[in-house]
Amino acid sequence: MAVSEIPRTLLPGTETRKLLLKWLVALLVPILVFTYVWVGEQMVNNVLLGMLYPDISYLDHDPSSLIFQSLFLLLLYGSVIALAGYLVAADSGRRSILEVWLDVVFAAVVPLILLATTANLLISIGLAVVIWALYMFVRNQVRKSMHYTPPAPLDSLHVIDDKESGARLRLAQQAGLWFGIIFAVITLVADLIFYATDQLAPLLMIWVVARTILLPLAGYFLGRLGGQLALRYAVKPDAGVEVAQVEEKQRGRQGWRANARKVSREQQLQSLSAGRAKEEARDVVPNDKPLQSRGAARVYLILLMAFVILYPVLDPILFGSGTKGRITSYGDLGFYVILALGLNIVVGFAGLLDLGYVAFFVIGTYAWSMVGSPQFYKLTGIIARPELFSWFFWPMIIIAALLTALWGVLLGAPTLRLRGDYLAIVTLGFGEIIPIVFTQMDKYTNGTDGIAGVYPPATPCIGSFCVNWITSPTPYYYLILILIGACIFANVRLRDSRMGRAWIAIREDEIAASSSGINLVNTKLFAFAAGAFFAGIAGVYHAAKLGTVAPGDFNSTDSIIYLAMVVIGGLGSIPGVLVGAVVVYAINLLILNQLDTYASDPTNFLHFLPQLIHNFTFSNVRNLLFGIILIVIMIFRPEGLIPSARRRRELHHTKNEDEEAEPSALDQPPGTPEFEAEMRVE
């Protein structure tokens, strides 16, 4: 009996064991790698030792730090156990065990090993993306050579009644329970070995015993929680959609609901095209790829948010020394993310190719630099006290963004009649002109010398606690997180608004959009203004964080980098743009920049190149390597790393999808019996 036949009867013992084996091994391997290969066990022990031994100086005894570390560990291990229950309950059982294990190895185990070896988050992410892309390419080639045809996405779709809901919930409980038992036994054996070799403090044995008892109990309840999450995406017997009847004369006075009929969710899904069916099947339980479903994505999002928010506390434990430099670089990454989100509005939503986006970033940067620095005295003759003018940073975020949006309208107005290559050339000219203009305005911008002494933000003190904006990068880290969150919220609201739909209509077909009543002038200008608005926010943050502004910080190639973030991530996709910004920043500004450092190390495998080629340096071929990476990604992933659903359908349209669709009345010649029967011609 197949796993997909679970609604008729409970799973037989063999199928249940296979399903549990598939997901328990798939999740236990990465969690064990984190615990014993990386720093998971060390984090747990340091938290407990910090609480139990307050006299040991090298341990962290800060109560807030210990609480945050404990919270992260509870969320991490608890989420993995709940995920085990979810995956078992949501799995259709049609994917082989080997395929699932390989996916988990390259998606989770390899990045963890890279994190443990490189001790750098962004470099590990960049390398992991490259390795994942190579794995996907090899897997696709193997499938082609074997003439593999994936099963139809909705073949396993069925209505889940109360009987099957109970069966899947019990499977989820079993998965969580067995995960807790196996993990408890493995950790117990490991800790006994550590204790026997004097590597474990005697007081920690109390925790070992308590953990061995609590893990199976937590597994049972968390597995059930994961099963309940999976059943939320199942098609229930009473789930349906109301649709209007065709006959107009039956409507009456009560509107379309008076003659609406109920169509089951199953019938609605079965009527979708192949592309839409594949998208919908990803979230409906049971499905073939539960790791990529919406329920699993919620678990990932919880972990990601916890990791990002608690990162300044976790960094010294996860990556050792150099925390200040890493947090500083992540603050720099943050304004790249905001710039990519703003450019995504112009290019991704509205389809306006803008190659001069750096101009708006320059305007936003100088807006705060000219106000929040000693340069303000040169402009106005008013002495600016730093402790007072630092407070103006907060209103200047909005003021500078609005000013930059105005410039977006002014620069966008001459380009309204242009499209495609012509628009790109004109915006590229703007990107070249604006930095030069600021360079020549000696009286206002200090010319080529730039502006130094830009004030940091100011925040009120709470008791004796004051935020250190001068020497600590942590406040800027949390500030950029807040700004990114606000920009993402604004992007989502704009995308789903009437203006966002108008942008998409212009991107798809400008003539059709104009014929539909969309005001092309206002819509395009608003797209330029919205994109420039986000660039202004990024510019103000950049000036305050850096403390100085120089004309050499900006050039036209920066616009190309911002555009690469949007295209590689996925045009029009907000999650894709976030990932694209991280990947491009990691590859271009971290990995390629440090290749010479790696090559100078005699123990590194890259050391042979300088020895083999005289005067060879990676800095000379950095742009070449970056260009090759961009070309490879665009060839094998033209829609981007995380594309929007619309763009995915455009680039992966099924060849025979139109031919397999049911013929409608418009497919029949007028006047034929089939046409009259379909159209009910009287």
3D structure, described in words:
With 682 residues, the protein is mainly α. It has three domains: 16-146 and 161-233, no CATH class; 294-552, no CATH class; 644-681, no CATH class. Helices cover 66% and strands 2% of the residues. It is built from 30 helices and four strands. The strands form two sheets. The chain has a two-stranded antiparallel ribbon. The protein is globular and about 80 Å long. The chain crosses the membrane at residues 20-39, 66-89, 96-115, 121-138, 175-197, 203-223, 297-314, 334-367, 388-410, 422-439, 476-494, 525-544, 560-591, 612-636. One of its GO terms (molecular function) is branched-chain amino acid transmembrane transporter activity.
How is this fold's topology laid out?
Elements: H1 13-37, H2 40-52, H3 63-90, H4 97-118, H5 121-145, H6 162-196, H7 204-231, E1 240-243, E2 261-264, H8 265-270, H9 274-281, H10 294-309, H11 311-319, H12 323-349, H13 358-371, H14 375-380, H15 386-389, H16 393-412, H17 421-440, H18 442-445, E3 451-452, H19 474-496, H20 498-508, H21 510-515, H22 520-546, E4 548-549, H23 556-569, H24 574-591, H25 595-599, H26 608-612, H27 622-636, H28 645-651, H29 657-660, H30 673-679
Antiparallel strand pairs: 1-2, 3-4
Low-pLDDT ranges = 1-10, 241-260, 654-669, 673-682
Number of helices: 30
Categorize the overall geometry: globular
User: What's the domain count?
Assistant: 3
- What structural class results from the helix and strand content? mainly alpha
Q: From the structure provided, what is the oligomeric state, counting identical versus distinct chains?
A: single chain
Largest sheet: 2 strands, antiparallel
Over all CA atoms, what is the radius of gyration?
Answer: 29 Å
* Average pLDDT for all residues: 84
Q: Portion of residues in helices?
A: 55-70%
Spatial order of strands in the largest sheet = 1-2
Number of strands: 4
